[in-house]
Amino acid sequence: MRRYLTAVALGAAFFTSACTTPEGNRLSSEQQLQLTCDGISSTIKVLAEYRATGDLSTRSIKLVDELRPSTAALCEGSVTDFQSALAILSNTAFTLLTIRKGAET
């Protein structure tokens, strides 16, 4: 299960800039935002498992806790500037994936 969530998170986090559908159509900024939010959500679920098992450092826990409110605001709120939101969420996804990678080593 962890590998599946990790694969989803990785795919979503780095799939935002030139996303296309299987038919070759470019995804809209709104669709890219949703895909990134889904990846972040999956990564946070994996990190919650690591936290429950004591595999996250205090610093990592604090960083995740700091990132969650702004992420929720962008993923659950109404966004008007999708490009700015995508930039912020891409950085968040990268940070969260880095924390996850650190917990796995």
What is the H/E string? Answer: HHHH
Helix % is over 70%
Task: Specify the biggest β-sheet.
Answer: none
Distance between the termini: 18 Å
Low-confidence stretches: none
Number of helices: 4
Quaternary class: single chain
Q: Count all strands and give the number.
A: 0
Structural class, judged by helices and strands?
mainly alpha
Integer-rounded radius of gyration:
14 Å
> What form results from the Cα inertia axes?
elongated
How big a fraction of the residues is strand? under 5%
Mean pLDDT: 84
Explain what this protein looks like in three dimensions.
The protein is mainly α. Helix content is 74%, strand content 0%. The protein has 4 helices and no strands. Helix 2 packs antiparallel against helix 3. It starts with a helix and ends with a helix.
List the topology elements:
Blueprint: H1 2-13, H2 29-52, H3 58-76, H4 82-104
Helix pairs in contact: 1-2, 2-3, 2-4, 3-4
Protein name: Lipoprotein
Keywords: Signal
Signal peptide: 1-20
Summary tags:
4 helices; 105 residues; mainly alpha; 74% helix
What is the compact description of this entry?
Residues 1-20 form the signal peptide. The chain is mainly α and 105 residues long.
